[in-house]
Specification:
Oligomer: homotrimer
CATH topology of chain A: 60s Ribosomal Protein L30, Chain: A
Radius of gyration of chain A: 15 Å
Largest sheet of chain A: 5 strands, mixed
CATH architecture of chain A: 2-Layer Sandwich
Strand order of the largest sheet of chain A: 1-2-5-3-4
Strand content of chain A: 25-35%
Largest interface: A-B, 33 and 28 residues
Helix content of chain A: 25-40%
Order of helices and strands of chain A: HEEHEHEE
Structural class of chain A: alpha+beta
Chain lengths: 154, 154, 154
Amino acid sequence: MTGVIEAKLTELGVELPDAAAPAANYVPFHLSGNQLFVSGQLPLMAGGPDFKGTLGTDIDVDTAQQAARACAINILAQAKAALGDLDRIAQCLRLGGFVNSAPDFIDHPKVVNGASDFLVEALGDKGRHTRFAVGVASLPFGVAVEIDALFAVE
Amino acid sequence: MTGVIEAKLTELGVELPDAAAPAANYVPFHLSGNQLFVSGQLPLMAGGPDFKGTLGTDIDVDTAQQAARACAINILAQAKAALGDLDRIAQCLRLGGFVNSAPDFIDHPKVVNGASDFLVEALGDKGRHTRFAVGVASLPFGVAVEIDALFAVE
Amino acid sequence: MTGVIEAKLTELGVELPDAAAPAANYVPFHLSGNQLFVSGQLPLMAGGPDFKGTLGTDIDVDTAQQAARACAINILAQAKAALGDLDRIAQCLRLGGFVNSAPDFIDHPKVVNGASDFLVEALGDKGRHTRFAVGVASLPFGVAVEIDALFAVE
């Protein structure tokens, strides 16, 4: 069966962007055996909002959840570029969630939920993953969230 | 052979807590092929001490080592929930150690040793892992340490 | 075929250092199935420069790129210790790049390029990896960069 997840994305009103080219001498994904590694994705999309800022300083949790969701959408865009068909995803195994945070910020889980909730909406149980959520001192281009991912594929 | 590691834990005076439920739309572990992924664990236990604080500011290395040990105990609690029997662990492959740190803190390895030493005490050579230890700006709920893990299982 | 990558390193003027012993109760690498996990490597080498500092505060991007390159050289030193022959590397799958950064630093990708570019120079297409690059609050011993790695091996 193919196209099921993409139909679900359409139902959610999500159009996958073109998979972003890496900004340097690395690759956006590797398929090795049945594991798909996706490079850390930023919440940047052509024509999209500017998800820059530091939690606890100048961006709020609601907005940062949208940033995390944008990272997850970019992760799926990379997965589609890697796999051709998102229905080849057997399981999202793991997300690494890096939140641009002030020292006194403590709600990193809520922020990364923006990505976690989206993946479960889009992939169902196959979207349920292990993860970590931590607060980093700064991120590339000043974005609020960076997330990398590992999938098991069929 | 079963129950060997749990007997060792009893000998060490360690009672595994109930595996903590995730605080959001993710899972605490995934078993995929022979790999067991465990979500980032916090040093929180019912009735346990409050391991909050920032290294270099308001928590010392000795206390943070106990926090790292508590993360490792929670990792084993998740592994037991995943595997039923901890003797199915073939090897702890990797720990990711995130230490809540001030910018001038430099002793992250000592802190994460609290987890590394415990895993070797509990699992013997099967507890020896690769790892990283880094200083993050902040962590969920203000805890001092967060650690995730990957195991090879039989 | 053996020795091809080491000949390339010689051509690049790179002599692999002795693989650094871990500073604590962990191991520098694990070979599990066809995956080689390498612990987070620091830019420290006997007789080498002192790559300490915080990006955006007291070390510049050019110097930190050299630090990232030194981390990658230490990663290959560990891979050689693990594999005997670097030609057994099938692919560098993933780098985790932690950059010691001030809150307003935004050029983490440029810093980690020091490692990425070196791995592609040394390993060719087998050196192209997925990665993340994030800014952490502090690192062990005050170094500017820490990088861990995962390889697929033959």
